[in-house]
Amino acid sequence: MAEKVLKGIAASDGVAIAKAYMLVDPDLSFEKTTVSDTDAEVARLHDAFDASKAELKVIKDKAVENLGEEEAEVFEAHITILSDPEMLGQIEGKIKDDKVNAEEALKEVTDTFISMFEAMTDNAYMQERAGDIRDVTKRVLSHLLGVTLPSPALIDSEVIVVAHDLTPSDTAQLDRKYVKGFITDIGGRTSHSAIMSRTLEIPAVVGSESATTDIKEGDTVVLDGINGDALVAPTDAEVADYQQKAKDFVAQKAEWAKLKNEATVSKDGKHFELASNIGTPDDMDGVLDAGSEAIGLFRSEFLYMNSSELPDEDTQFEAYKKVVEGMNGKPVIVRTMDIGGDKELPYLPLPDEMNPFLGYRAIRISLDRDDIFRTQLRALLRASHYGQLRIMFPMIATLDEFRKAKAIFEEEKAKLVAAGTPVADDIKLGIMIEIPAAAILADQFAKEVDFFSIGTNDLIQYSFAADRGNEQVSYLYQPYNPSLLRLIKHVIDAAHANGRFTGMCGEVAGDQIAVPLLMGLGLDEFSMSSTSVLKTRSLMKKLDTKEMAKLADKALNECVTNEEVKELVEKNVFGK
Ligand code: PEP
Ligand code: MG
After folding, report:
1. CA dist., res. 518 & res. 527, Å (int)
2. Which ligand 1 atom sits nearest the alpha carbon of residue 454?
3. Separation between Cα atoms, residue 465 and residue 477, nearest integer Å
4. Per-residue model confidence (pLDDT) at position 125
5. CA-CA distance, 1 to 492, in Å (whole number)?
6. Were 231 and a residue from 63, 222, 284, 340 both cysteine, which residue would form a disulfide, CB within 3.0 to 4.6 Å?
7. Residue 271 catalytic?
8. What are the pLDDT digits (tens) for 234-266?
9. CATH class of this structure's domain 38-145
């Protein structure tokens, strides 16, 4: 038997066996002390600065090699801060004048810089520096305290990353060549770390509760992302079993791959659009490998998160153009920036909030900071010339928000047209249905928007009042609950009554129990991680929509619980 077996939430299919890499911040706490030999303390400070710079240089070179120039820019910015004589001079001054230890002087001075930059609300560039200074301070402090900060960009052998949680920016730094899987303490199936793992096509288990305490650096770990298990220090027999399971999974994938160039048509001949969700243009390989018919969700905020400052119009234009051209005329839905909730930008500090998921996020930020929004819309408008680009707004709660966003879009479009810039004139504008208020009013929205895309990750979180990243309430993630299915039906029917189409880009769209029901409800487009596309096409081709409509009717009107619906589908579709 393995030394330990951990159980978590299966977040991304596949099996991996490798050594553990602990992506856990060390304890950086310290006491304020008085020093008598201030020269020695200043020398200690200089050593820590030099060591940090040397370390950042190595990380930067490695990041350029593994991840690309753009991802490595943040490290160059950190080296620049460390080379600034002003900050170093002030810390030295504090050590000499106040006779405090270097750790305390560093903290006091950098805190002042951070507050100063954060207060520059009219200068986004300076505001962005606050996050960099915070990161740099952590690094210098680690050298003063003689502890090591983990540097995921330096990973150069196959590992399974173990972390309490993975922020989207941590995940963006992981090199998929070496990171074979990851396991976290917290998070649910729709937390962003889980979604990223599916995009990166690496097996993942989230919400294991104790991965960072039960696993040690270098332990051999078997990670089963199909069932949500992790084995620490497995026996030879267990390793052999899981190697077989990994092989079976690869064989199954090869079967699905045969459907790559086929259309997604049900048994009775109805065509559905099967699409991919992506985060960056780098995910295009997965989209093409899966033979997706569209991109149903381009989470554009990843362009912002993978950058050390607000991406400018040209940078964004290039990214959108690449994706639109890559799809060769097939539809690409780009969602405008969805920052906030659990997605932060180090360079755009958001207010501290009691409930970030209910706070300042997504379209609310875009309408408030229309400078950022206009830049994004201009980049999108310019890219629209190169293919079939559609735009959708995240977290719309009221028609008023949609109207305001649309008006800004029209203004920017008119300006570009007046300047002679080519833009497509038939760009469809849609909204995400993530907030129950919008779902309920879908019949009115449908008169003004071109399409809906149902974001079940948030729609479930808001309908059941259950934080999507909190494993303690993960039992309330009930994708088959008749209440949710009725809400979805209402949205689809409202769209169809007005000649609009409805897609779904939340995780439910690729859920094999939900897919038959959604076909029955008449969902037009299913958008999911590329890794789920072929599996879903294989399932959809076997099903008859009229039969699925009857099944959906039963689920909505005769079933009462999530479990009952699940059993109904398992029995009738999968013969279980
Ligand atoms: C959703 O909420 O379902 C969605 C697709 O958006 P995200 O997961 O990025 O919040
Ligand atoms: Mg969402």
Report:
1. 12
2. 3
3. 10
4. 67
5. 50
6. 222
7. no
8. 999 999 999 999 999 999 999 999 999 999 999
9. mainly alpha
Q: Using CA atoms, how far apart are residues 306 and 280, in angstroms rounded to an integer?
A: 9
Name which of 223-227, 270-274, 302-306, 329-333 the model is least confident about: 302-306
Question: What phi and psi values does residue 96 have, to the nearest 5 degrees?
Answer: -70, -45
Q: Which residue has the tokens 């009952």?
A: 564
Sign of CA dihedral 451, 455, 456, 461: negative
- Measure 276 CA to ligand 1 centroid, in angstroms: 13
Q: How far apart are the first and last CA of the chain?
A: 30
Cβ atoms of 391 and 332 closer than 8 Å: no
- Give the tokens for residue 383: 């890219």
- CATH 1.10.274.10-classified regions of the chain: 38-145
The answer to whether 256 touches 31, Cβ cutoff 8 Å, is no
Q: Specify whether the CB–CB gap between 183 and 210 falls below 8 A.
A: no
- Is position 374 annotated in a ligand binding site? no
**What are the pLDDT digits (tens) for 39-61?**
999 999 999 999 999 989 988 88
Alpha-helical segments (H) within 99-152:
102-118, 124-145
* CATH superfamily of the 258-572 domain: Phosphoenolpyruvate-binding domains (3.20.20.60)
The active-site residue out of 46, 192, 385, 496 is 192
Confidence of residue 424 (pLDDT cuts 50, 70, 90): very high
CA distance 24 to 215: 11
pTM: 0.78
Residue count of the chain = 576
Q: Which residues contact 164 (CB under 8 A, 6 or more apart)?
A: 24, 184, 185, 186, 212
Residue 509 tokens read as 């769209």
Specify the CATH number of the domain 4-24+152-254: 3.50.30.10
Look at phi and psi of residue 34 and say left if phi exceeds 0, alpha if psi is from -120 to 50, else beta. Answer: beta
Closest atom of ligand 1 relative to the 506 alpha carbon:
3
Q: Please name which ligand lies nearest the alpha carbon of 479.
A: 1
Amino acid identity at 30: F
Rounded Cα gap, residues 30 and 94, in angstroms:
17
